[in-house]
Write a structure and sequence with these properties.
alpha+beta; Nuclear Transport Factor 2, Chain: A; five-stranded mixed sheet; two-stranded antiparallel sheet; 5 helices; 7 strands; Cyclase_SnoaL-like; SnoaL-like domain-containing protein; NTF2-like_dom_sf
Length: about 160
């Protein structure tokens, strides 16, 4: 699944993502990511790829018990595009302009399987650690002004 997400590979995701799968982490993502099945996971992969080059997950450990699989990973990449955070109704809430910086953040992904396919996903992520590495937090005055302008432009374009 992680390799398919990194590559935005629709065919590979269709092989591992159940047609009724849901991603609980998609609540701050574009509306297309909040649906069900492989198409929603492809939308998430594309959303991440618009902001991050070389995005990949290094799987460190995997544990399975019954229909539950837990993968401890490190997500890494470089922010080369704007990262859009969305509201509950799908509007753009905040835009973090590209910094060109690399990041590597630990994550734990929880996957419930049905018939060997992912039917449910949720995660624990070090978003604050990633934000610090990317220079989002604490925002300096120049970066804060760039955020405000990028957010206004993205809202106007939407």
């Amino acid at each position: 699944m992680f390799d398919a997400l990194s590559a935005c590979d629709e065919a590979a995701l269709a092989e591992v993502i159940h047609p009724d799968a849901t991603n609980r982490e998609a609540v701050r993502e574009p509306l297309a990511c909040r649906g069900r099945g492989p198409a929603a996971f492809v939308a998430t992969a594309r959303w991440l790829a618009t902001a991050h080059s070389g995005l990949r997950w290094e799987v460190r450990e995997v544990v399975q018990e019954g229909d539950l699989v837990v993968a401890h990973t490190t997500m890494s990449g470089r922010q080369t595009g704007p990262f859009h955070v969305h509201t509950a109704d799908g509007a753009i809430e905040t835009v973090f302009p590209a910094t060109g910086r690399a990041f590597a953040a630990p994550q734990t992904h929880w996957l419930r399987l049905v018939d060997g396919m992912v039917v449910e996903h949720w995660a624990n992520r070090d978003d604050m650690g990633m934000a610090k590495q990317l220079g989002w937090v604490p925002p300096g005055p120049v970066y804060l002004a760039k955020m405000v302008l990028a957010t206004r432009r993205a809202r106007a374009a939407a």
